[in-house]
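Reopening this one. Same input as before:
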Amino acid sequence: MKQTIHRSIIMFSVVAQAMLATAENAVIIDRIRNSSLPLYSVETAGYLTNPATSFFSDSTSISSISMRARLNDESQPIMEQTGTGSRLFSINADSYQRLSADMAVWGSASYTTGVYKDIKWTNCIDYEYVAPYVLGDEVGGDLNTQSYRFAGGIARRHDRWTFGAHLSYRAEIASRDHDPRVKTVVSFLNAAIGAAFNVTPRYMVGLNGKVSVYNQNCDVDFYNPINDINIYTLTGMGTYYKRFMGNANKNSGYNSVGFSASAQFLSTDKSGLKAAVSFDSYRMKQQLRNFNNLTLGFTDNTILTGSAAYRFTPSGSIIVEPVLTACARFRKGTENIFGTSAGASYDKIGSNSYYRHNSFLAEISVPVQWSINSNLCLTSMPGFSIFHDKESYADPMRKTCVTRFTPGLRENLSLTRGAWLWSIDASGAYRLSDSDDPVWTDLDLTSPLGKCQLHNYAMLSADCIEATVDFSAARSIGKTAIKGTIFYSINHYLRHGDNSLAGITLGIYF
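Same output, byte for byte:
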């Protein structure tokens, strides 16, 4: 009798452990599956702009450590200032934790190393953020890079109010091992606070503000005392400041202080209507270190963003969430004019605002998620976007104007089998461009700088076929899971070459 009872206890223990393991497997796999579905990124995007509403972005805790490799090759660079691709390898740690029913914390850290390939006409990184006032040369070359990123935030709910704060920091150093030998160091700090108020049990209104501080120091050295490489002080669209051109001007700095404000109207359960608007502004200054930190030029940048979405469920197994987003960017450049010098000091005698670069992007997508059964989920996401870009320089007159129309479709299939999760994601789009005749007054189009401008414009105005495929598999082991992902994408610019990107990620989730 005792042996029978003992065996029964053992059998019960084994069955209980198996059931517990199965439950744990289901929890971690379901959590990974939900976060990898296309609708998840769509429905959480509006919540993450405000550290207070980030509290509602998820209801369960999860952490991960992952390693990633990304290989990008461009047969023709999209922009010569951003190079012909990259080889980047990184390790990342992320965590989102619900400490209680009323408090959430999150954090991330990453380290990336690799190379940016064949960058020309800029001796700095983050070109699209600091342009057009940069130092550059036609020789260029690869830049070896290392970067560190840290971020963390907290949100706490109190009655109908939720408060949050978020802090992020990025440090990066990039260098070149042949003349001109570039060494650039970047620091970028962002601090945000926010609040949200439940106007009804289901809906809330959120407000938040952010301050950003950016700094980049760029030094150029020549180990060979005999060289004929000229450093240009570029001012946009092939223009440059001839007075400060040459090898005496080798060091520059870029710094800005920016702020942003945004408002959100969101639901606490991610259903129904969601809307958000934001305003960002920053002034980017270029300073010449070899000329007593002279501020040669600066840009005033304004970014307006808006989005609206509505989620509804025609049936218990189907979720539909149309999303409309729009973004307008305005950049105004100002060049300072200097008189005679006294030693290393120059008197400012005026300024001109010749440079303008404005763009507008509007996108609409209609994700439809169909849970065929408890294990199989299909998501279709047709979409369409319009992009308008206009860049100009007043004297001498130079101007480009391009409008792009892009219809596309994304399909995702997700399948769970026991402890396994399988997912395949594929998307395609065709980008049709319509452009005005460019104006290049007084630009020598046969010179290296002229050819750079022509090339960048040709890539911007080219029709393009885009395709991406992504495959991932995950397996849970108790309370943890291992996930691997491989992806490949290609952009074929008609008559201009291909841009391909491949990557692999391996991570552990717990």
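So the earlier flakiness isn't reproducible anymore. For the record, The chain has a mean pLDDT of 91.
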